[in-house]
Amino acid sequence: MTSSLEKFKVSERKCIATGKVLSKSELVRFVLGPNNVIYPDLENKLPGRGMWVKAKRSAIVKAEESQLFARAANQNATCVKNLATQVENLIADRITKLIGLSRKSGQCICGYEKVKDWLKKDIAKVLIQSSDGSGREKSRLRTPDGGSYIGWLNSKELGKAFGRENITHCALASGGLTQRIVEDAQRLKGLRIVKDQNSFRKDEKSK
């Protein structure tokens, strides 16, 4: 029988770029595909030996430029151009789709007044605001107590989740896909260069 400690260890992997042992939720898995090309495996399901890199742009760039994938695979390995950007876009698209699924199940809403109401009633567990939204307007809504804040998706990406052109405010209730969205958002945070510093709350900047 597998002990709780062993289960915990199974959920961790060593980053080939930093050498640190981290939770899978902090890493991106890569596999060697056809023609010895490196592919990101966000679902952690593709066959083959996984190579794990911290979900941070500098770590992926280091793994690519220092040929760490080839060293980990013990054979030639080729990375697609702008690998870190490709991973960033894949994660952003995945988050957008998960938010869309949460909306369909009634676990996610959008719009300033609706989000404000959910926050007031303690329904919202995650506050999501677009990186390109008005800083003054965004500051009127608070991060849920004990909850999470996501501010590095742009208004068009959020709008896509709701079938609209642009969205500035949305909120997630607990349960459903919320934890997966939060984990993927943290991975995206390490990969995304956001020019608008209002995308990060004071309590988020130090993380």
Strand order of the largest sheet: 5-3-4-6
CATH homologous superfamily (4th level) name of the largest domain? Ribosomal protein L30/S12
By DSSP (H or I, 4+ residues per run), the number of helices equals 8
* Percentage of residues assigned to helices: 25-40%
Strand fraction equals 15-25%
Question: Which shape, going by the Cα principal axes?
Answer: elongated
Give the distance, in angstroms, between the N- and C-terminal Cα atoms.
36 Å
Helices and strands, in order, run as HEEEEEHHEHEHEHEHEH
Kindly identify the CATH topology of the largest domain. 60s Ribosomal Protein L30, Chain: A
Q: Radius of gyration in whole Å, from Cα?
A: 18 Å
What's the CATH architecture of the largest domain?
Answer: 2-Layer Sandwich
Structural class: alpha+beta
For the biggest sheet, the summary is: 4 strands, mixed
Oligomer: single chain
Report the strand count. Answer: 10
Overall average residue pLDDT: 89
